[in-house]
Amino acid sequence: MPRDLHDVPNQSAAIECKPAGCDSEDEKRSWRRWLVLGFIFAVTVINFIDRQTLSVLAPVLRASYHLSNEAYGRIVAALQFGMMAGEFPMGWLMDRVGARIGLAAAVLWWSAATGCQAFTHSGFQLGATRLWMGTGEAGNFSGGMKAISRFFTQEERTLAIGIFNSGTMIGATLAPPLIVFLLERYGFRIAFTIPALLGLLWVPVWWHFYPGHRPVLSSDGVLKAPLAELLKQSSTWAVMTCRFLIGPVMQFYWYWIPSYLYSARHMSIVQIGVIAWLPFFLGDIGGILGGYVAGWLQRRNLKIYTVRRITMYGSSILCLSSLIVPYLRDAVASLFMIGFALMANTFLVANMFGAVTDLFPQESVGRATGLTGVSGGLSGLLFPLVTGVLVDNFSYRPAFIVVGLMPLLGTLALFILGSKYRSAS
């Protein structure tokens, strides 16, 4: 039996591209990789500022466009539908033309949609632009993963993913003060325009610093491992199932915790505004720590299968701490426990995305990430409905139980369904 994934046929690291005169090993040792990571982190921050603009402006938009709760809900769902629809096409684009062109195109596409929201005059128009925006934003993760798989060695990739993914929380944390400032000074239409300009300014800088490439194609000029072949692989279903179960956990913390603190813990809006950032700060630490620990274990000559087992099972067990949250009497203690659970979850997520680079050669990473995004998007649409039913008919307790168990179930699915991990043990 092979001792490591690198001994399994077709699992050695492939090369996305090779610019003229540039050796791939030199790329992975060059300072340039950290610059590339900085750009990916920055555009992820911009992405989540764009994404949160709607929720921050919601009271003004609902009054201006005379939106009911149902109409506003459809606009929120439009972004999720757009992302789910765009995940695989964007992943295909990254594999076909590389991250330089692919990610630049994605950012231009979603930034244009963000800016067009400033010109809407109805709920339908706003929903249409959010749908458009979602199809482009789907390229953020597949493009980021594509670039990381090119520029970072296997032992560095999980750390790079953790840093890149931390941009999601930082962007969403920066969005409220920025958008409120723009709203108060210039009105809601400028509040859509400025975030769009941030993306448009990012593109030429990315284009200048990210080196060109030649994609890895088969002899007939098409991408290796077409969709039908990918869907035949157990690794594909392993990572898709894993993200289906783990993906909605972050959304629960993001969208439901303020409501939980207000309705169940009886915190005021002011109190929530002052301290609700704490769990997400801990989440940022967890993502970076998850990448660092994975690399630290690899540098001690542990096989990648063993590293993923330690990091993913360990962090998914720590995610069970969310089961304790509803039973804590003190509101501040419950907030710290939420932060601990969120830190464990982001630790896990960094290694979940790292598993994609373990199981797929570089020429398939974009599409594999896109397929996980499709499954994560589907659960992202379904899980909020389940959460609403549980909260309305019971309490937050069963919701916290489900959220605590899903990371462990996702980890189990990855190792049970992922035959290449099993053969590497």
- Report Rg: 21 Å
> What are the low-pLDDT stretches, counting only 5+ consecutive residues below 50?
6-23
Overall structural domain count: 2
Overall shape: globular
Separation of the first and last Cα atoms: 8 Å
Order of helices and strands: HHHHHHHHHHHHHHHHH
* CATH top level assignment of the largest domain: Mainly Alpha
Mean pLDDT: 85
CATH homologous superfamily assignment of the largest domain: MFS general substrate transporter like domains
Question: What characterizes the major β-sheet?
Answer: none
Helix content: over 70%
- The second-level CATH architecture of the largest domain is Up-down Bundle
CATH names the topology of the largest domain as Growth Hormone, Chain: A
| Beta strand count | 0
Structural class: mainly alpha
Highlighted features:
425 residues; Growth Hormone, Chain: A; 17 helices
Structural commentary:
By secondary structure, the chain is an all-alpha fold. The chain has two domains: 191 residues, MFS general substrate transporter like domains (Growth Hormone, Chain: A), CATH 1.20.1250; 202 residues, Growth Hormone, Chain: A. The chain is 79% helix and 0% strand. It is built from 17 helices and no strands. Helix 7 packs antiparallel against helix 12. It is globular and about 55 Å long. About 4% of the residues have low confidence.
What is the compact description of this entry?
With 425 residues, the chain is an all-alpha fold. It has 2 domains: 21-211, MFS general substrate transporter like domains (Growth Hormone, Chain: A); 224-425, MFS general substrate transporter like domains (Growth Hormone, Chain: A). 79% of the residues lie in helices and 0% in strands.
